[in-house]
């Protein structure tokens, strides 16, 4: 007797998707236009909807259905079986932990985030440390429950795998060591070059002009306003309800138009991904569960591959001057581009330029590894943090605000997440390397018609949504595993030019 058919699974997944669309829209509204007094009501509503979708995702109907389909795979299409595998993994992750522990942990992370904010206000790590310690204890307990047979080589591997399936410390150590060594060589080389003068980057550009510039550039790369919009916020993000509604946000400063332009290009890259997922994945988790690394590779493709390319700007410098009423007309293109590309070590990760950014991630990765694989003491984390900034970036945080207290991630229990940011950089460069075999970028940029770039990204990345892992997409698109040399070669070429290093 047939107990379930594929349509039953699709109907249940659609119900979950509809609830999640609601949550996404309400979440977007909370961060863009909601009246401040409404926040308690909104939190109540979001937690209600979150509870409903969680129930459907892990409840008896779903588990029964997944069991049945796993025993009867032949009655499902290929897509149906892929969905069963995907959902089974999710259910396992969420149900291996006893309910009381899960609820207690949720409360703890919410309190920890308040403690983190308070610690920031008082510049006092000690306020936050006890909460961080408890979160780590919970995570260590969860790791044992998630990996009961102790299959992972190290504890931290279990966390890495949740954000980037298949990623391990053994693999990442090799990759990050290559990046560290390569970056040292580049930094060394640049010390013999000419530092650009970046004062022109802080010329005043009215926000209306910045908006027009950023939106013009984003739309030329294919971001569609008929399927999206741009709003103001404090911490920029992209949120997608579905492939026809992928909204981006940004923040503005009249004396820092670069922040807005690169910020909008970045978020529009996330939006492009969402707007171009194949319609066959509508109302399934494959339209929304993309791994963060592959998503980030697309926002970063806009930001660091296109938005930092000399030949791209050679063409768009005219747009910049037209929109800003010739604010930069007295500056030569070369002078402007060198200013645009200035690199210097910063203490704050989110303010880092593309060259130094991965070092911020490597520092966090090494600290997380110390916490989970070597039981490093929470009390001593600020000292470890500072020592690593001194060693890798040559700058010492003068306090914990610009040190260990800068990111909210650990207060939310997000360990194993940071490496995805760096992987996004490396993936973007590897895609670019492959694309150059069939696309003449200089010629495409000079023509002002970027369709060829759009088409490649849609065909090889966006259309798949979350139906493939990042490694599968990378391998299929570029023919090889992750190779950080492409990123290093690209940065070396760009900055050797910008810093006018003479090679004898
Ligand atoms: Zn991003």
UniProtKB/TrEMBL annotation:
GO function terms (MF aspect): carboxypeptidase activity
EC number: 3.4.17.19
Database matches in CDD domains: M32_Taq (cd06460)
Enzyme class: hydrolase
A Pfam family per the record: Peptidase_M32
Keyword annotations from UniProtKB, A to Z: Carboxypeptidase, Hydrolase, Metal-binding, Metalloprotease, Protease
Keyword Protease tagged: yes
InterPro entries noted in UniProt: Peptidase_M32_Taq
Catalytically driven reaction(s): Release of a C-terminal amino acid with broad specificity, except for -Pro
Function of the molecule: Broad specificity carboxypetidase that releases amino acids sequentially from the C-terminus, including neutral, aromatic, polar and basic residues.
PANTHER family for the chain: CARBOXYPEPTIDASE 1, METAL-DEPENDENT CARBOXYPEPTIDASE
Similarity comment text for this entry: Belongs to the peptidase M32 family.
Identification of the protein by name: Metal-dependent carboxypeptidase
Organism: Periweissella beninensis
